[in-house]
Amino acid sequence: MNKLTYLWSQGMVDKIAEKVAEEPMENVELIQQIQKHRTRPKHVIDEEKVDEEILNRHDRRQMEMFDDPYMNWSGQR
After folding, report:
1. What is the CB-side half-sphere exposure of residue 36 using CA atoms within 13 A?
2. What is the DSSP string of 37-72?
C-alpha cells in the first residue's frame, strides 16, 4: 500500500504565507496610476446623458399632465 508523505507541514505553509505577506508590493503605485487614468469612453458618457434626458422629459410630461386640469381625469388635485 502506498503511503503519501506530506512535505509541507502547516508550520512551513504559515512561514511562507507570512514571508509573502511581508514582501513589499512594488507594483501598487503603478496599478493606482493606471486606475487613476482609466476613464470611460466618451460615447458611453454621452449615451448616459441622453438616457437621463429622455427620463427627465418623460417625468416632465407626466408632471404636466398631472398639473393640467383638462388632462388630469382623476379630478382636481
Report:
1. 6
2. H----HHHHHHHHHHHHHHHHHHHHHHHHHH-TTT-
Q: Rounded mean pLDDT of 25-48?
A: 79
SS3 track for 12-38:
HHHHHHHHHHHCCCCCHHHHHHHHHHC
Reduced to 3 states (helix: H, G, I; strand: E, B; else coil), residue 10 is helix
For residue 46, what is its C-alpha cell?
Answer: 454621452
**Mean residue pLDDT across the chain:** 77
Residue 68 is placed in which grid cell? Answer: 393640467
On whether the CB atoms of residues 51 and 44 are closer than 8 A, the answer is no
> What span, in angstroms and rounded, lies between the C-alpha atoms of 30 and 28?
5
Instruction: Indicate the helix (H) or strand (E) that contains 3.
Output: none
Identify the pLDDT of residue 23.
75
